[in-house]
């Protein structure tokens, strides 16, 4: 019985933790959506808030089934939890295999997605903050190089562009000194007109796609460890769900056998009553 309780509450704790995380993701996503301008057109591929809501909702549903299935010993909920988690696990493994086998295609799709995000840079505040964070974190600018920002209507170099940022780059592309406390938000103005050797004195000229790939290769153990840890945790949760389900079925079968045995004895007593003193 102690072993069963250990399985039950371990599964519940795991599911409850991810249930809380999913609720936080949904709350953050909804807050970001409400805070946005109403005329912004959202798409799943380039909208962080919408992505948070969808991922959080899927996690919330899966972990809800696991939490209440484990706590209430409901085999139906546990089976649903197991099936959905198994499907998610298979999709994750399949995505990894496809990404490894078709690297060129994945890179091409990723580049198009990042370029699409650059085009919508000023239209979505969440997306703008995400791009600024990536460019600051990885010390990069654009997708392939800093001149990719000419694809954005605010930063293109056309003579008809009335924007003050025309032929420039965002301030997140700028090289900031360690002791610099006040950041010049106009440091990227006109940098696309400069040659690479001159521009690199003030801004990062390498693209973010190359920098992210370089970071991933240099931190392959960290990335692989986190991925393997997540997959291993999913496998553990599936095994716990299987163990609890089988234990519940075993207990139910024993209970049914006891009831059947009790009914059989009662039937025998009824058909063959005892007669005291009769030999």
UniProtKB/TrEMBL annotation:
InterPro entries: Tetraspanin/Peripherin, Tetraspanin_animals, Tetraspanin_EC2_sf. The chain crosses the membrane at residues 12-34, 49-68, 80-102, 222-243. Keywords: Cell junction, Cell membrane, Cytoplasm, Disulfide bond, Glycoprotein, Membrane, Transmembrane, Transmembrane helix. GO terms for biological process: pore complex assembly; protein localization to plasma membrane; protein maturation. One of its GO terms (molecular function) is enzyme binding. Disulfide bonds join 141-157. It is found in: Cell junction, Adherens junction; Cell membrane; Cytoplasm; Membrane. One of its GO terms (cellular component) is plasma membrane. It comes from the Eukaryota. Residues 258-279 are annotated as: Disordered. Belongs to the tetraspanin (TM4SF) family. This is Tetraspanin.
């Amino acid at each position: 019985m102690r072993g069963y309780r250990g399985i039950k509450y371990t599964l519940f704790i795991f599911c409850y933790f991810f249930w809380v995380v999913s609720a936080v993701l949904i709350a953050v996503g909804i807050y970001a959506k409400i805070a946005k301008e109403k005329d912004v057109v959202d798409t799943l591929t380039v909208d962080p808030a919408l992505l948070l809501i969808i991922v959080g909702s899927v996690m919330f549903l899966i972990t809800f089934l696991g939490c209440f299935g484990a706590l209430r010993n409901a085999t139906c909920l546990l089976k649903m939890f197991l099936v959905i988690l198994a499907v998610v696990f298979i999709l994750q493994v399949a995505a990894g295999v496809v990404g490894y086998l078709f690297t060129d295609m994945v890179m091409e799709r990723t580049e198009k997605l990042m370029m699409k995000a650059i085009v919508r840079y000023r239209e979505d505040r969440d997306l703008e903050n995400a791009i600024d964070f990536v460019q600051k974190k990885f010390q990069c600018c654009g997708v392939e190089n800093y001149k990719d920002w000419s694809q954005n209507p605010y930063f293109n170099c056309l003579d008809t562009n009335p924007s003050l940022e025309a032929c420039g780059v965002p301030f997140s592309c700028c090289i900031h000194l360690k002791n610099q406390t006040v950041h010049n938000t106009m440091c990227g103005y006109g940098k696309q007109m400069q040659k690479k050797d001159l521009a690199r004195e003030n801004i990062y000229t390498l693209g973010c796609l190359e920098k992210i790939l370089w970071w991933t290769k240099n931190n392959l153990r960290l990335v692989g460890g986190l991925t393997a840890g997540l997959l291993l945790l999913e496998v553990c949760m599936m095994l716990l769900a299987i163990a609890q389900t089988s234990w519940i079925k075993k207990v139910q079968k024993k209970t049914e056998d006891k009831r059947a045995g009790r009914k059989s004895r009662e039937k025998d007593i009824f058909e063959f009553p005892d007669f005291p003193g009769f030999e």
